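User: Here's a protein and a ligand (magnesium ion). What would the complex look like?
Assistant: Let me lay out the input and then the predicted complex.
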Amino acid sequence: MFHSYNPATELGPNAEAGFEVPYLEKKHIIKAKDFIHAGQGSVQLKRALKSVGFPADIIQRVSICAYEAEMNVVMHGGNGVLTFRLDADEILIDVEDDGPGIENIDLAFQEGFTTASNEHLEMGFGAGMGLPNIKKNVDSLEIQSEKGKGTHLKMRFQVKKDGD
Ligand SMILES: Nc1ncnc2c1ncn2[C@@H]1O[C@H](COP(=O)(O)OP(=O)(O)OP(=O)(O)O)[C@@H](O)[C@H]1O
Ligand SMILES: [Mg+2]
């Protein structure tokens, strides 16, 4: 469930984007190993973006990144929070977990690198493509991770205005 503490009532100043972008911030709790509910945060985020009227290509890119980050928390991380913030100029997806962290970030971003277990592989995960896919689809990406200290991803997407 998204926990909204700033309902989408106030409209942002960028109506010139061709659609009205509300200020909106929502949080979704991600539980470690909870494959039953895994991906729900991304699904709800996709719905929210559709209801605001974002162009399909932005929705697609944001959804891919949110889904991959959410699944990584479920599979490799600990418990986490996905925060989704719609701003005047950008969409921010912030995903933070208190899991084991990533020892070598450069290695983790290499296509095909995975530490997935056999159980994950049997479920169809573990291609080692989640982080590379995120990198391809964001406009900007910040990652903080340390062994034993969890992982924090900030993914940003520009809201294109007419004429951009
Ligand atoms: N939140 C996280 N916490 C700890 N380790 C992570 C986290 N996210 C990614 N990793 C590490 O980085 C590796 C690469 O992640 P990536 O998402 O690219 O591939 P994958 O999750 O293994 O497979 P796929 O995403 O294709 O199902 C993971 O196998 C894991 O070792
Ligand atoms: Mg992954």
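Summary: Residues 68, 71-72, 130 surround magnesium ion (ligand 2) (CB under 6 Å).
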